Amino acid sequence: MADIGAPPRRLNWKPRLIPDEQAIIEQTLCELVDEMSCHLVLTTGGTGPARRDVTPDATLAVADREMPGFGEQMRQISLHFVPTAILRVRWRDSQTGADP
């Protein structure tokens, strides 16, 4: 836990736009975690039911384990903002690399 009086840490983040190709998504996720030591990687897009929507599949392919329940919670929260969100979102909640 952080010290209450300590100044907040600045987040160092960089967005990336990559094609909806499973191999490229997997390679990018591995690079971010293994080479750049990212502790949190957020993905968006490619989560619908279309055949080209492979982001959850790519995430699972490189993950060490899933995090049950997290995706369901995010779906519930999303429903408050977009009532049809449940129809177009496949969450993949997983961990890879060293424990935080």
From TrEMBL:
SUPFAM superfamilies: Molybdenum cofactor biosynthesis proteins
Organism of provenance: Escherichia coli
Segments forming domain MoaB/Mog: 16-86
Pathway involvement of the protein, from the record: Cofactor biosynthesis; molybdopterin biosynthesis
Function: Catalyzes the adenylation of molybdopterin as part of the biosynthesis of the molybdenum-cofactor.
InterPro entries: MoaB/Mog-like_dom_sf, MoaB/Mog_dom, MoCF_biosynth_CS, MPT_Adenylyltrnsfr/MoaC-Rel
One Gene Ontology term from the biological process aspect of the record: Mo-molybdopterin cofactor biosynthetic process
GO molecular function annotation: molybdopterin adenylyltransferase activity
EC number: 2.7.7.75
Keyword Nucleotidyltransferase: yes
A Pfam match: MoCF_biosynth
Keyword list, A-Z: Molybdenum cofactor biosynthesis, Nucleotidyltransferase, Transferase
Catalytic activity reported: molybdopterin + ATP + H(+) = adenylyl-molybdopterin + diphosphate
Protein name: Molybdopterin adenylyltransferase
